[in-house]
């Protein structure tokens, strides 16, 4: 892993010119030419409106996990806070395939795993981990975990990712290996808390002998996309390792720049809008 960077703020171009209509741009991907079709973060008039949005995007995240083959029996859980009652979070129901999650079968739970709204049971491991993270870190809005092939395989090494690409650099200084409760099913609150204290400080977590977790201060969209990206980064790392050739890594400055500009929370949200649009168009049953 690269050492902590000591580049100055001037090394990362934070200030961007406004667009042609004078609106503030916060990402290099926002068009300079105004009036073009481009995803915009929504503004909400009520908690109910924001709740509907978060639930829709939680369902889409579950469907995206199905599309990427992240299902493994009942394992895997995604959560997002309720906007009006942040001590509660929405999550996918126990023993329902990611592809069958819809608005009507989501459940609302508290940090103790008590179902407040919904008919389905909650995943015990899900609420132990997610509940602990949401309770320990009020700023964490969303979190994802699934038992994926490449992520689980790479997690057995107990190593962080090497900065071998722009994609990997999205996790520069923002992912960690956790050895606590390695390989154990996290169904006890004590183990959940010990893991939670590390998860909430990082975008991605490699839980040794277990698998991947991501969390976001921004949105379920962001958490879900970076989970997909983290699994992909693990696959790429394993492929490189299999060659036996020592890879070239990107510089500290490049890794930091990439994380800030192509690996930010906003970029995670923006990437996911491509998936959301496709899923909403091709799987309208998600809204049922």
Automatic annotation (TrEMBL):
**Where in this chain does the record put each Class II aldolase/adducin N-terminal domain?**
56-238
Q: Name one GO cellular component term.
A: cytoskeleton
Which InterPro entries does its entry note? Aldolase-II_Adducin_sf, Aldolase_II/adducin_N, Aldolase_II/adducin_N_sf
Q: Which SUPFAM superfamilies match?
A: AraD/HMP-PK domain-like
List the molecular function annotations (GO) for this entry: actin filament binding
The source's superkingdom equals Bacteria
Pfam families given in the database record: Aldolase_II
Q: Which Gene3D superfamilies match?
A: Class II aldolase/adducin N-terminal domain
Q: Which family does it belong to?
A: Belongs to the aldolase class II family.
Protein known as: Class II aldolase/adducin family protein
Naturally occurring in which organism (per UniProt): Methylobacterium mesophilicum SR1.6/6
């Amino acid at each position: 892993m690269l050492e902590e960077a000591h580049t100055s703020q001037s090394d990362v171009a934070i200030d961007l010119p406004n667009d042609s209509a004078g609106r503030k741009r916060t990402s290099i991907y926002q068009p300079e030419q105004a009036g073009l079709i481009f995803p915009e973060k929504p503004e909400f008039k009520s908690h109910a409106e924001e709740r509907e949005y978060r639930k829709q995007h939680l369902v889409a995240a579950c469907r995206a996990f199905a599309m990427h083959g992240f299902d493994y029996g009942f394992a895997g859980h995604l959560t997002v806070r309720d906007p009006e009652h942040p001590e509660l979070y929405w999550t996918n129901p126990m023993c329902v395939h990611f592809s069958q999650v819809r608005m009507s079968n989501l459940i609302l739970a508290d940090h103790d795993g008590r179902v407040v709204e919904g008919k389905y049971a909650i995943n015990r491991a899900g609420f132990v981990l997610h509940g602990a993270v949401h309770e320990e870190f009020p700023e964490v809005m969303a979190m994802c975990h699934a038992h994926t092939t490449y992520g689980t395989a790479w997690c057995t090494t107990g190593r962080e990712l090497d900065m071998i690409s722009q994609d990997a650099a999205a996790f520069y200084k923002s992912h960690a290996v956790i050895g606590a409760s390695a390989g154990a099913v996290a169904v006890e609150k004590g183990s959940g808390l010990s893991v939670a204290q590390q998860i909430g400080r990082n975008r991605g977590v490699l839980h040794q002998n277990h698998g991947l977790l991501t969390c976001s201060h921004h949105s379920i969209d962001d958490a879900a996309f970076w989970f997909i990206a983290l699994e992909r980064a693990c696959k790429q790392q394993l492929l490189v390792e299999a060659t036996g050739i020592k890879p070239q890594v990107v510089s500290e400055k490049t890794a930091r720049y990439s994380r800030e500009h192509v690996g930010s929370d906003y970029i995670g949200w923006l990437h996911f809008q491509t998936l959301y649009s496709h899923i909403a168009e091709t799987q309208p049953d998600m809204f049922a």
